[in-house]
Amino acid sequence: MKITKETISKLNELGYNIWAHDDNCNEVPFEKGNYIYIDYRSIKAPKQKEVTVEWLLDKISEKSSYRNLSNYLRKLFSSTMSVYPASYGIGINSLFGFKNNVEMVENKLRELGLKYRCEFSDCRFVYRFIISTDTANMNILKSL
């Protein structure tokens, strides 16, 4: 991928820890990577276009409702090594206390009546609760 050291440095200054990985989720130098890992998710890098700060920030905040979603969820779940709010919903590190954390998050989301679906990240390091940003869900979250 095409990314400059200046772009990486700017992203680090903004508080993002980024790294590159290949199709098999092996960490590789940026110039050999196909994906950028940022904000708890992998983003496919463009083949020809240079990755810029603006492009990457647009990718991680494509919908403004997802930006707000993370802020609302921070009221319900504090960030820990294992469970953390993210732009898509809630992430659970699949390496630590996985089953208990899944049960805890599921119970809370059901209690609130939120619509969600679950998936593993590309590398299977994170179990994700993808929370819908439909009007009903957002109204529930705003009322908290």
Summarize the structure.
This protein is an alpha+beta fold and 144 residues long.
Provide a descriptive summary of the structure in words.
Strands 3-2-4-5 form a 4-stranded antiparallel β-sheet, covered by helices on one side. The protein has a 4-stranded antiparallel β-sheet with strand order 7-8-10-9. A two-stranded parallel ribbon has the order 1-6. It starts with a strand and ends with a helix. The protein is α+β, with helices and mostly antiparallel strands and about 140 residues long. The chain has helices spanning about 5-15, 55-60, 65-75, 100-110, 135-140, and strands at about 1-5, 20, 25-30, 35-40, 40-45, 50, 85, 90-95, 115-120, 125-130.
H/E series, N to C? EHEEEEEHHEEHEEH
Low-confidence stretches: none
The helix/strand class is alpha+beta
Radius of gyration: 16 Å
**How much helicity do the residues have?**
25-40%
Question: Total strand count, please?
Answer: 10
Mean pLDDT: 87
Number of helical segments? 5
Main beta-sheet annotation: 4 strands, antiparallel
Shape: globular
Strand content: 25-35%
By oligomeric state, this entry counts as single chain
Output the strand order for the largest sheet.
3-2-4-5
The rounded distance between the terminal residues' Cα atoms is 42 Å
